[in-house]
Structures are given as C-alpha cells and as structure tokens.
Amino acid sequence: MRNIYHSVEQRQKLFIQLYKTAFPAIAKYISRLGGTADEAKDVFQDVLIIYYEKMVAQALPEKDIAYMVGTSKNLWLQRYRENNRQVSLDSIDIPASEAETPADKRLLNFLAVAGKKCMDLLKSFYYDQSPAAELAQQFGYSGVRSVTVQKYKCLEKVRETVKQKSLTYADFME
Amino acid sequence: MPTSWNNPAQIDNYLGNNMSNGDALVFEAHLLLNPELVDKMQWQQKTYMLVQSYGRRQLKQEIEAVHQQLFTHTKHSRFSQKIMALFKKL
Q1: Core vs surface per residue A96-119: b (16+ CB within 10 A) or e
Q2: Given CB atoms, is B80 within the 8 Å cutoff of chain A?
Q3: Contacts of B86 (CB under 8 A, 6+ apart)
Q4: A67 Cβ partners below 8 Å, 6+ apart?
Q5: Distance between CA atoms of A141 and A143, rounded to whole angstroms?
Q6: A110, B27, B58, B74: least surrounded by Cβ within 10 Å?
Q7: Is the ipTM of this complex over 0.85?
Q8: Closest approach of A84 to chain B, Cα-based (Å)
Q9: For A71-90, b where at least 16 C-beta lie within 10 A, e where not — what string?
Q10: Neighbour tally for B22: CB within 10 Å
Q11: pLDDT in tens, B46-89
C-alpha cells in the first residue's frame, strides 16, 4: 500500500493505534520470559521503525499486527536472551544502510541544526516518500514545480556541506 | 537530456533508476570521462544515507512522544495500567 502517513499528526494516530493493538501481546510475551518493561519498549519502538520503513517501501500489508508481534519476539530474543545486546536495527530484516561512524554522527548533529530546513524537506521526500504536491503545501511552496526546484537546491547545498565537513572531520579524527 | 551533467537532479534520476536506458548509458559515459561527476555522485550517495539516518532519528522522537503520551495522559490510563501490570513483580 501507499504510505498515507505524511504528517506528524497522521503518524501519531498510526502509532497510537499500533501501540494499542500490538503492544499488549508483545509486552505479555516479553514479561512471561522475564523481560522488563523497558526492554519491551525498546524492542517495540525499533519494530515500529522497521514497520514504518517497510510500509513506505510498500513491502507490507497495512497494519500487519502478526508481523509486528513476530519481529518483536525475534528481536527481543536476539538482544536479551542470547546475551547479545549489540544487535542493531540494521542487522535484522531491514535493508542495511551504512553504519553510522562517529564522524557521521557529528555531521548529522551539525546538519540537524545548521541545515534543518533542507534536511526536513529532503527527509520528507526520501525517507517518508511524501508526494511533491503535499510537500508543497506542507512547506509553503506555490506548487509541485517550486518544491521540486527547492528539493534539488537543498540536495546540492547539503551535498556540499557533507563533502566539506566530512573532509574536515576526517582530518580532525586522524 | 540536459547538458548539465553535474546537477543534482541528473544524479538523482540516475541513482533512483528514473532514467531511460539511453540516458543512463550516456550518463555512465560521462562518469567515465568526468571525475568531478563521480565525486559529486559519491557525495550525493552519502547525503542520501545521512537523510535516511536523520529520518530515523526524527521518527524515533515521534514514537517516543507517543509513548510518553500513552503512559502519562490520564486519557490512556486503562491501557498503561494494563501494560504495567504485566511487569509487576509478584
């Protein structure tokens, strides 16, 4: 299905609904095996991220509760049962993105402040895959054309910042 | 096909498989001849990776806000009590 959760409010509704329908079963399972409330929370929140990304990629039927419960169980077992607390999101069943290095984290912190407007726009285009018409409205542009022009301006601006900062941080780290 | 090979839109179309086969072939020829284009394409890929990480961070914050709402607002107290009861030590 197509992602229809393009705004924070729409996603908030979705997550509340998923919490109410899927979390009780997951919490029950984890508590039975001796897990804690915090562990259940951590696992479920990561599963919500995986679920959202799969939904955006149109790789899941809508509100697939069985999938969420199954993935949560597996993730909890991997993390807390097999004494391997280092299992990250990337090692389960989402497409692996490159691991974040400390330099990437610094860069991301920098962009989140200095380039926030562009990062928010790019994130909506690429991560949420929201349609340009909606983004024009959301970000206050006159139409699809102007928001698309802005997307490419941002892409260029962020790309140049990433290049410059990466080279600086690389020098700094060595 | 525009002549400005280095612009982010062309690279975006190429990386997103949104080019015709013919245009993609021409683009690849430019990649062979133009190290500057290769450089820009690599930084653009890195940018996409960072945008993905940024998206995850934002989503995680949104989810945490929902969690706080569900476990602190009285409106949802039946739900939160039901969950917390599961973890009470006997």
Answers
A1: eeeebeeebebbbeebeeebeebb
A2: no
A3: A27, A28, A31, A37
A4: A51, A60
A5: 6
A6: B74
A7: yes
A8: 22
A9: bbbebbbbbbeeeeeebebe
A10: 9
A11: 999 999 999 999 999 999 999 999 999 999 999 999 999 999 86
